[in-house]
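Much of what follows relies on a compact textual record of a protein's fold. With that in mind, consider the following protein and its fold in token form.
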Amino acid sequence: MNSFNVGLYIRLSKDDGNIESDSIVSQRSLLNQYVKENNYKVIDEYVDDGFTGTNFDRPAFKKMIKDIELGKINMIITKDMSRLGRDYIGTGELIEKYFPNHNIRYIAINDGIDTFLDNTSNDLAPFKAIMNDMYAKDISKKVKTSLHSRMKDGLYVSGRCPYGFMKDPNNKNHLIINEEQSKIVKLIFDLALKGKTYHFIAGELTRRKIKTPASYYNYVWNKNGSNKGMWADTTIKAILTNRIYVGDLVQGKTKKLNYKLKKTIKNNPKDYIIVLNTHKAIIDRDTFNYVQTLLPKNVKRPEKKRFYILDGLLYCGDCKHRIMIRYQNKTGRSYTTCNYYRTYSKYQVCTTHTNNYEILERVILDNIKDVCKKYLSKSKIKDVIEKINFKDNSLIVKKQIENLEITNIKLIENLDKTYLDKLKGIIDESQYLRIKETLEKEIKNNNLSIDYLKEQKVLDQNDKVTKYLNEFLDLDNLSRKLLMTLVEKIYIYQDKRIDIIFTFTNS
């Protein structure tokens, strides 16, 4: 018995935190009593309080694995298998493979499991793991159903309050106005009413040194990321388009892929859970609706006097924002600059990333050609192309059409609202005609785009092989169209390193 160096593992998740027998105190007491009765030597105790068992991304668990690798412990004891984990695949891998490979003895007291003994309980371990997994899945479904029910009842269920609000101290599911932040929300809408852009408003708030939403949330910034004192255009847009400021709750915008993953995906807008007038408004509905008609939509980049084959593909390798290309009349040459640095240079959020564009383009294009010629030699090019996993753009096209159709619905609603505003005397005839002309023009352009997208045909693999074969064979004349087919992004680092992300992968 003295040859075992024991690690006690204790875990409690939020889902089973109301079960007294699973409490940290209860588990610790049970494990210590077991150790005392068997005269084992305890090296360390590993406690994950508030962590789910559906994955193994837990700090104490990771420390325990590290100690196993270092040879500090060779025996692990838990109250039962569910404390080790509720993912049956991961738990099975640990018990059936990892622990034996590292000569670790594992004991789950209440389940009667001891991997150094030959008993029936050990044989039943895989089934217990599956039952624990099913329990986690069932709990996830119940939590999800409960959340949806509360959302439909108009209760706010998110952990963090939207900017401008705070939770009612008498009811955590009800929002009340944060007086300090609401003044900034009103200022943002006032500036928007004056026709100011997202970028102008963000710059104005930054200039006034107004505290950002992220500063209130104690967001952890990376060294090359945004600065706490800077407002972003996307933040302004999110505030100006959020119906929460008129007193409505719009929830259920995202959902988890499954109960084992933290990753979320966006829901279809038609599946949002919307409840009207759940809390006091900061902005009245007429003002909010009118602002929506003034917001920039489908903003297009101005026509450039100079064409650059790499334009739109260059990104800063350090802060991940776009690299822009600028022409200097004095030198007659073009240079690259990190767009984020250029916009917020005085905040020292990134560095210049300045390069002579002509030299950079030559180096990058030569690199692309070398890679393609290496993997796409003319003698084997057809075979290789057939193995390339081309991206299917059908879902992207479908999403683009859906977004345009949704945008048109909103534009038509705004057109109707503008007409009512004219009848009520809120705006005069000239304002109405100006807004009407702008909205109708945008609706027409969107319809043309929808028609074009619907006419696009998604090529199958054979069509693509034929289509790209001739272009690959003539690689020396690398066109913009072919370049966009080959390359997804190009990262430029301050130390002159270049990373090219290709759109194809070899099977």
